[in-house]
Amino acid sequence: xxxxxxxxxxxxxxxxxxxxxxxxxxxxxxxxxxxxxxxxxxxxxxxxxxxxxxxxxxxxxxxxxxxxxxxxxxxxxxxxxxxxxxxxxxxxxxxxxxxxxxxxxxxxxxxxxxxxxxxxxxxxxxxxxxxxxxxxxxxxxxxxxxxxxxxxxxxxxxxxxxxxxxxxxxxxxxxxxxxxxxxxxxxxxxxxxxxxxxxxxxxxxxxxxxxxxxxxxxxxxxxxxxxxxxxxxxx
Amino acid sequence: xxxxxxxxxxxxxxxxxxxxxxxxxxxxxxxxxxxxxxxxxxxxxxxxxxxxxxxxxxxxxxxxxxxxxxxxxxxxxxxxxxxxxxxxxxxxxxxxxxxxxxxxxxxxxxxxxxxxxxxxxxxxxxxxxxxxxxxxxxxxxxxxxxxxxxxxxxxxxxxxxxxxxxxxxxxxxxxxxxxxxxxxxxxxxxxxxxxxxxxxxxxxxxxxxxxxxxxxxxxxxxxxxxxxxxxxxxx
DNA sequence: CGCTGTGTTGATCTTCTTCAACCCGCGTGG
DNA sequence: CCACGCGGGTTGAAGAAGATCAACACAGCG
Lengths: 235, 235
Fold this sequence. Notes:
The structure is a homodimer. By secondary structure, chain A is an alpha+beta fold. Chain A contains 6 helices and 10 strands. Helix content of chain A is 34%, strand content 27%. In chain A, strands 1, 2, 3, 4, 5, 6 and 7 form a 7-stranded antiparallel sheet that branches. Chain A has a 3-stranded antiparallel sheet with strand order 8-10-9. In chain A, strand 4 (61-75) and strand 5 (81-88) form a beta hairpin. In chain A, helix 3 crosses helix 6 (226-234). The longest helix of chain A is centred in the middle third of the chain and has 25 residues, at 131-155. Chain A is elongated. The relative contact order of chain A is 0.13. At the A-B interface, strand 5 and helix 2 of A face strand 5 and helix 2 of B. Chain A binds a DNA duplex through residues 159-160, 186-188, 196-200, 202-203, 206.
């Protein structure tokens, strides 16, 4: 099985009683629709660094992230690596497989994730006669597109400082916590997100810490001074 | 009417007999489907610099580009401008309005364009009972997503030279001509596409011309040395 | 105990930005 | 008709920002 590295199969999903059903792809389904799900939807848990799928693979599933965080990675001919998007809570990834296209990215787990692996045949069956599901799919596609464009404008434009500020602000709002706290990634990954080197990423973070824009609570967990960061990006 | 600047209304579209129907959004429609198009689909032509729509507007139409080229522009809080995507032949833009979301970009014509303005109500009506149209819509969304991600990896990564090479190669392949010829934009726009300044854009182009990677046939029209450019990006 | 991977920091070099001057083609108004 | 100004493009010189290379700290682990 290629889904290596600490995969934990949690059993088949019971979509009908899914705890996050209202926020999730199948929100609009009717009771009767669940009868027509014959191919099993697996319920999976992954630990950091697990590889969900690889760019170029012909996929037969889409994935709904019920909990966690992962990175979508692309490579250039010269070997450069760029992280083009993150997927978190209630995001759907691998949509391209619905169109018969191979996966466009490596999908790698960043934080422990719980997700459902849905065979594309299930989605296709449900689609006939489910305008709500269509609508929901389009919404996911649009979400991915908006995210991707935000990465271009916010995380690939301006100085390293500005990009980092944008990244941090994104992270604290998506974590949606009462406290402005986020978990940071390896300097290497931060570099690949912002289009800068590991070293500059490190230096910028050091500078932010010196200025108290950023405060390390425990390893990889940081508290950020949102107003200060906002000044940086609108200057 | 806000669609200012030399708009030319060409009459109502006759989708049934559209010359590019096979490549276009409505490719999968049946004869009978055309009966149910009650709201008019307008057939428009725009000259360069015309503004199709503006970011933030609540749109009531999507647009199919039958011919031409336009840029999709986003702005940062600090006023920076980035071109996040180009749309050309047979691309569909403004899809977000189908979801009730406001337009995410300014859409500005770069080269004389012929396009159809389709009311979202028409698309929504046709969608019920037209899986092919759904499929086609998803394809367009995925295309936009792929494009957007390619801009991140190819046009916002590496040195100015590499980005320019990527841009030129993209342009000559999309033009799909026998000759490796493309029409270039203002230095300002090139800068906004590559995330560099007008001046560096100018310098890089000058350098390419000196090295004969690039040859100006007539104003704004260039012939490029594809192999040479390929070396640049894979070095 | 030493090794490895990750992060940090310094010194130097390259690249890009910034600011300024200038050219040229074009249109406008005197 | 010509002078002028304007916008777009080019080029130079200076400086800033980031990349690169190298050394080192430190934690985790066999």
